[in-house]
From TrEMBL:
<keyword id="KW-0472">Membrane</keyword>
<keyword id="KW-0812">Transmembrane</keyword>
<feature type="transmembrane region" description="Helical">
    <location>
        <begin position="6"/>
        <end position="24"/>
    </location>
</feature>
<feature type="transmembrane region" description="Helical">
    <location>
        <begin position="108"/>
        <end position="125"/>
    </location>
</feature>
<feature type="transmembrane region" description="Helical">
    <location>
        <begin position="68"/>
        <end position="87"/>
    </location>
</feature>
<protein>
    <recommendedName>
        <fullName>Lycopene cyclase domain-containing protein</fullName>
    </recommendedName>
</protein>
<feature type="transmembrane region" description="Helical">
    <location>
        <begin position="31"/>
        <end position="48"/>
    </location>
</feature>
<keyword id="KW-1133">Transmembrane helix</keyword>
């Protein structure tokens, strides 16, 4: 366990000090395809393993698990993703400021593209994977 503490400290100190921002940008660019591949693989695996059909659209529980209408509970839980806005605005401060990157960051990394993928696409995947 002490070895893993040391590993975490050794990679955390340079991150806390700063100075490796360009490296992290390149590293994140390399990791994104793995994320997309993993997401697709998990969805396909879930569909194959659980024989997923469109039954999730009409599923009714045997007994209600929450007080009040289910749509209100689902709305409240799902809109909890709005906390991402605060974190996203905070991370946007570190975005590159040259002309090309500002446009890309505004549209995809910190703008509508991010929210579309995070809330809509992941919400559809999550609700269909039950």
């Amino acid at each position: 366990m002490s070895l893993w503490y040391l590993v975490v400290v050794l990679y955390s100190i340079p991150l806390a000090i700063g100075g490796i921002r360009a490296f992290l940008d390149k590293f994140n660019r390399c990791l994104f395809p793995f994320y997309v591949f993993g997401l697709v693989a998990i969805v396909v695996w879930t569909v194959v393993e659980l024989d997923a059909t469109s039954g999730w659209l009409t599923y009714q529980p045997e007994s209600p698990s929450v007080a009040g209408p289910g749509w209100l509970f689902a709305f409240g839980v799902y809109m909890g993703d709005w906390v991402l806005m605060m974190a996203n605005w905070d991370f946007a401060r570190f975005g590159r400021t040259n002309k090309r990157d500002v446009r890309t960051n505004g549209r995809f990394a910190f703008g509508p593209g991010f929210y579309l993928f995070t809330i809509v696409i992941n919400g559809l995947i999550g609700s269909s994977s039950r």
